[in-house]
Amino acid sequence: MLVLTADAKGIVMRPEALRAATAKTATSRKLATRLSKGEKTGRKRMAEVVAVYHCTPAPRTPADVIGPPGAERDRRRAGPKAAGKWLHASVTDDTATVITAMFDQADQHDPYRQRTTVALVDGNTHQIDTIRATARARGRPVTIVVDFVHVLQYLWKAAWCLHTEADPAAEVWVAAHANTVLSGRATRVAGALQRQATKAALPADKRRTLDECTTYLLNKARYLRYDHALAAGWPIATGVIEGACRPRPGS
Question: Are residues 52 and 156 in the same domain?
Answer without folding.
Answer: no
